[in-house]
Write a structure and sequence with these properties.
Helix content is 62%, strand content 0%. The longest helix has 18 residues. 25% of the residues are buried.
């Protein structure tokens, strides 16, 4: 079983995440988990951080990142769908939020 420690470089999260108690709490748990537990549990914590950002800081969610395969997939899926569902848009936003704080290979998992 692959552990989360096999990930890539950790970007420095934006300053505003440090000023939000919930971001700080979720991100702290995520970072601790990344060094100690298996990938499935880290992925769950990753989703919690991103979901919080999407819900409480929607204006901070970045746009699609050029060169990210998952961003390309989300972008193509939403562009091809006439009536894009709220769930599809939410999933794309959760993924993009991960680019703010997670290593690139971890962000691509969501």
């Amino acid at each position: 079983m692959r552990t989360a420690q096999q990930g890539g470089r950790w970007p420095t999260p934006p300053d505003w995440m440090d000023r939000c108690p919930e971001c700080r709490r979720h991100y702290g748990v995520y970072r601790v988990a990344a060094g100690t537990v298996y990938l499935t549990q880290v992925t769950q914590r990753h989703i919690r951080v991103s979901t919080h950002i999407v819900a409480d800081h929607p204006d901070r969610v970045p746009d699609y990142v050029p060169g990210c395969r998952r961003c390309d997939e989300h972008h193509a899926a939403t562009a091809q769908t006439r009536a894009t569902s709220a769930a599809m848009l939410h999933a794309a936003a959760v993924h993009r939020a991960g680019h703010l704080y997670a290593p690139a290979d971890a962000a691509r998992l969501i």
